[in-house]
Amino acid sequence: FRATNGSKAFLQAWRLAMLAKREAENTNDQFIFVAMVRDAGIEPVTSSPERMRTWRASLAAHGLHRPEAFGRISPSTRGVFLSKEGFASAAPCLPSERCAPQRFSLATLPLRVFTGGHTYFMQRLHNAPGHDLPRLSPL
């Protein structure tokens, strides 16, 4: 977790979504998370040149832009997704303050590194191509 405005905006949107469902029966934080992500209009950064430019500018603003990594983007590259502009719940401040909504990004995690034992066994990852590769490989 990096305490960027996007990270804070994401957490605030999820917090507000959970507060709105506090009295609801038969729900949990994961269902609320999925609904919040859907409401945020999450789309792959590769879905349009504008989204890719926005994401690259955000990376550059935080000193994380590595142009050489963009040359290696392929269909097997893990997904990075960007929220829509103006998602009202995604304001990176406390309710007592006023600030503009911020876009936030989410990414898929590499299965080999983040899978639990049950998933590893049930998905038979020990038989999958590349199972013997180093667990920590770059994007």
Note the main attributes of this structure.
flat; mainly alpha; three-stranded antiparallel β-sheet; 139 residues
What does this structure look like?
- The structure is a single chain.
- By secondary structure, this protein is mainly alpha-helical.
- It has six helices and three strands.
Based on DSSP secondary structure assignment, what is the total number of beta strands?
3
Q: What is the averaged pLDDT score?
A: 81
Q: How far apart are the termini? A: 17 Å
Strand order of the largest sheet: 1-2-3
Compact description:
The chain is mainly alpha-helical and 139 residues long.
Layout of secondary structure:
Layout: H1 5-20, H2 29-39, E1 43-44, H3 49-61, H4 67-70, E2 80-82, E3 105-107, H5 111-114, H6 117-122
Antiparallel strand pairs: 1-2, 2-3
Helix pairs in contact: 1-2
